[in-house]
């Protein structure tokens, strides 16, 4: 009798509705740990978690210039539980370089909001012979092809910006691809190459490097002594590395707006604002429509640059 009463009492307890326990959000970082994309993903994850009331799990799915992780999210259910750190590589330059891209950067995603727009810089050895961009370019003019500029790989933004600089300055630079910014920096310091173009977040804190110019529209608060390419006479080199949040196409607009509101609130906190300043950028308040428009504008720009410079991923 007692067992029957206990069973009856247990069955009488109403079940907790599924919607009372929000499903975790999988935040895909389509690059390896340690880089700028990974850093930004891990910065925003706990902020989103606290504001949305959902667990946010960061998942690194690197490969193919960000395409593997991005494609996984593009093919996920559009219920707001699968997001990706979309970026200039996976949703901008990559679309122009990789003709076999498995997704459309606009049609296959719901773009939610911009996290940061981080500038690149041209770095040289702090112990080397170049103190200014003019000296660097003069050396390239004096001996065409002898000035070697490293990047994190063929078809990357660093590669594209190296070609942009060569065309804007009417010089011949030799591009040297690496598997990431770290080995490219090592060779600059060791004298194997003369320079490297990479995100300031990846090279700006290295005391063995000297930054000659930065690609932002205005000088970065974190590096006030570094001139912009624009002020040095190269306005086409105004080109930031952008990183944002995106989900699969077909997400409910209200869900995307809710995630955007959490992101914008997180970026406005003093602690996050300081972290962004350290990365050479500032907080923003982009709506989903704003970020979608940014991606749409960047795609044809990089397609033209890639085509003119005949940039390839291999």
Automatic annotation (TrEMBL):
Coiled-coil residue spans: none
Annotated organism of origin: Roseomonas nitratireducens
Protein name listed in UniProt: Tripartite tricarboxylate transporter substrate binding protein
UniProt-listed InterPro entries: BUG (IPR005064), Bug_dom1 (IPR042100)
Family to which this protein belongs: Belongs to the UPF0065 (bug) family.
Keywords from the named record: Signal
Signal peptide extent: 1-20
């Amino acid at each position: 009798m007692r067992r029957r009463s206990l069973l009856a009492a247990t069955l009488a307890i109403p079940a907790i509705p599924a919607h009372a326990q929000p499903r975790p959000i999988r935040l895909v970082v389509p690059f390896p740990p340690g880089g700028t994309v990974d850093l930004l993903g891990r910065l925003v994850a706990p902020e989103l978690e606290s504001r949305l009331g959902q667990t946010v799990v960061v998942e690194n799915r690197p490969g193919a210039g960000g395409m593997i992780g991005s494609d996984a999210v593009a093919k996920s259910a559009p219920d707001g539980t699968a997001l990706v750190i979309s970026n200039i590589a996976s949703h901008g330059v990559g679309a122009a370089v990789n003709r076999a891209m498995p997704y459309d950067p606009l049609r296959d995603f719901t773009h939610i909001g911009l996290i940061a727009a981080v500038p690149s810089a041209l770095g040289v050895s702090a112990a080397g012979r170049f103190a200014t961009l003019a000296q660097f370019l003069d050396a390239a003019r004096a001996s065409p092809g002898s000035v070697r500029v490293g990047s994190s790989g063929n078809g990357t933004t660093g590669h594209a910006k190296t070609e942009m600089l060569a065309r804007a300055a009417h010089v011949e630079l030799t591009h040297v691809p690496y598997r990431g910014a770290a080995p490219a920096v090592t060779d600059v310091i060791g004298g194997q190459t003369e320079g490297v173009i990479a995100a300031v977040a990846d090279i700006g804190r290295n005391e063995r490097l000297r930054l000659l110019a930065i690609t932002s529209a205005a000088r970065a608060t974190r590096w006030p002594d570094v001139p912009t390419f624009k002020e040095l006479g190269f306005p086409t080199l105004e080109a930031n590395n952008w990183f944002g949040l995106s989900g699969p196409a077909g997400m409910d607009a209200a869900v995307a707006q809710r995630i955007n509101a959490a992101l914008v609130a997180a970026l406005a906190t003093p602690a996050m604002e300081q972290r962004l300043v350290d990365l050479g950028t500032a907080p923003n308040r982009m709506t989903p429509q704003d970020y979608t428009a940014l991606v749409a504008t960047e795609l044809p720009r990089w397609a033209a640059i890639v085509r003119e410079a005949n940039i390839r991923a291999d």
